[in-house]
Amino acid sequence: MAKKYYSRSEKEKLAKKLATVVAVFVIVCTATVVIGHIVDNQKMNTGQKDAATESDIVKINGVECKPNWDVQTYLFIGEDARGVKTRKTESDGTGQSDVLELLVIDTKKNTYHKLPINRDTITDVKSLDEDGSYLATTKTQIALAHAKGDGMELSCENTVDAVSNMLYGIRIEGYISLNMDSIKILNHLAGGVPVTIEDDFSQSDPSLVMGQNITLTDDQAMHYVHDRMNVGDGTNECRMRRQKAYVDALFPLYKAKLQADSGFVNEFYNDLSDYMVTDMSVGEMGNVANMIINSEDKGELSIKGTNAIAEDDGFNEFTMDETSRGEVAMELFFNKVEK
Prior knowledge:
Strand 1 and strand 2 (63-67) form a beta hairpin. The protein has helices at residues 8-55, 144-147, 153-166, 182-190, 218-226, 236-260, 264-272, 282-293, 322-332, and strands spanning 58-60, 63-67, 71-79, 97-106, 111-116, 122-128, 134-141, 174-179, 193-196, 213-216, 276-278, 296-300, 305-309, 316-320, 334-336. By secondary structure, it is of the alpha+beta class.
C-alpha cells in the first residue's frame, strides 16, 4: 500500500483530533477509577456501619440499644488551671476539669441538646504513664481524668475516654478544652453576659449583689462561673447551676454574632488559642457553629444522682442513678433495637 502523505494543515487537524481523543480517554478512565473508589468506599463504610450496628448493641436499663448514627457529639472541658497552655512533663494531679458539658446534635432532626456532667461523678478513670501508655483504671471523680495526663492532648483524650465509657461507649467527634483565663475572653467576645445574681458573693466578689440583674464584666464573669468556696452553699451543684445560667445567656449572644459575621469563628479561635486545646480545626468549629445556627435548641438534660462526702479523703462524690443515666443515654445517643 502506498504511503499517504499529509499536508501541514491536515497534520494539525489530525493532531487536534488525536489530542481530543486522548483527553476524552483520560477523563473517562479517571472518572471510572474515581467512581470505583467512591462505590468501594461506600461499600466499606456501609459494611463498617453494619458491623458496628451488630457489634455495638448494648443493654441499657434492660433494653437492647444500638448507636444513633445521626447524632454528632462534642465535649467542652473547662480546666481548673490558669496561664498559657503548656505541656506537663509529668502528671501531678493538677488541671482537673471543673466543667464538663456535651453538645449533642441530631443531624436528622436538626435539633441539639446540652448535657452537663457533674465533675464529682464517680466513674472509671484511666491512669496514664508519662508517655501516655495505660497504667490502671480506678473508680474516682471524672474531673481527675484531665489531671492524669500532660495537660494537653493526652489529658483531653483521657477525659473523652472517661465520658464516653460513662455513657455506654458513645462516639465523641471532637473536644474543646479551655482553662480559667479563657472565661474573661469568652465574656469579652460576647460583650458581657446578662445574669441574675442568686447566690451570696459577699466574700468572693462584693460587686455581685444578690438579687440584682447585671451584665457581667470580664472580671465578674470569672468569679460568677468559677468560684465555689464561700459562695452560696459552697457545693459544686450550686456552681453548676450558675454555669448553666451563664451558658444559657451566652449561647444566644454567640449565635447572633455567628449569624451576623461568619468570621466570628476565626476571632474565637485566635483569641482563645493560648488557653485552648482542641482536636478541631477552625473550619470544623465553623461547621459545628453552622449546625447549631440551623438547629433547634431542645434545652438541657441531666443525670440524676446523690451527693456524699468521701470518708477517706473528704472530697465530694456524685453517684449517678443508674436508671437516670440509662434514660438520658437512650434519649440522646441510642435507638432501641427493633425485634
